């Protein structure tokens, strides 16, 4: 069974009891829906920390990406969920993966003013020198967005 919509739905709502039940039945924790989302990507994007922990403990791939190349870490850096970002990184998420246009989790945090996450990604060792498809770095994006705090954080990295 490649797609299990109830697993994706339970991840979206954070239904821990149902997730535990269905995972104990041996369902593939790394299934994808039509957009390539895994249960972990969905749980993280919807700020479901406990569901994310459960899925990771059940073997979810923390570096899985949707069809656009977006990972759970990119999603939480876009949305601004530092607790989940910490969980993902400490569970082995690759800080420097790039999506289809070359963006990274650090770039998402920078562009959307998630400066706590900019600092966290840098503290964990994210590479600020990676460029996206236009040749821009996270610092370039911070300047473009007028994100003064991120500019200061990133400027000390170069």
From TrEMBL:
<feature type="repeat" description="ANK">
    <location>
        <begin position="68"/>
        <end position="100"/>
    </location>
</feature>
<feature type="repeat" description="ANK">
    <location>
        <begin position="101"/>
        <end position="133"/>
    </location>
</feature>
<dbReference type="Pfam" id="PF13637">
    <property type="entry name" value="Ank_4"/>
</dbReference>
<dbReference type="Pfam" id="PF12796">
    <property type="entry name" value="Ank_2"/>
</dbReference>
<feature type="repeat" description="ANK">
    <location>
        <begin position="35"/>
        <end position="67"/>
    </location>
</feature>
<feature type="repeat" description="ANK">
    <location>
        <begin position="2"/>
        <end position="34"/>
    </location>
</feature>
<keyword id="KW-0677">Repeat</keyword>
<protein>
    <submittedName>
        <fullName>Uncharacterized protein</fullName>
    </submittedName>
</protein>
<dbReference type="InterPro" id="IPR036770">
    <property type="entry name" value="Ankyrin_rpt-contain_sf"/>
</dbReference>
<dbReference type="InterPro" id="IPR002110">
    <property type="entry name" value="Ankyrin_rpt"/>
</dbReference>
<keyword id="KW-0040">ANK repeat</keyword>
């Amino acid at each position: 069974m490649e797609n299990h919509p109830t697993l994706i739905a339970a991840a979206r709502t954070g239904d821990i009891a149902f997730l535990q039940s269905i995972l104990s039945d041996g369902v593939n924790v790394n299934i994808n829906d039509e957009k390539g989302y895994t249960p972990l990507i969905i749980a993280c994007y919807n700020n479901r920390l406990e569901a994310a922990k459960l899925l990771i403990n059940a073997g979810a791939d923390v570096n899985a990406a949707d069809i656009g190349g977006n990972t759970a870490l990119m999603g939480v850096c876009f949305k601004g969920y530092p607790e989940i970002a910490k969980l993902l990184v400490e569970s082995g998420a690759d800080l420097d993966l790039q999506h289809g246009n070359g963006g990274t989790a650090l770039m998402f945090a920078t562009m959307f003013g998630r400066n706590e996450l900019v600092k966290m990604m840098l503290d964990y060792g994210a590479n600020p020198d990676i460029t996206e498809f236009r040749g821009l770095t996270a610092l370039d994006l911070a300047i473009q967005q007028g994100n003064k705090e991120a500019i200061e954080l990133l400027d000390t990295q170069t």
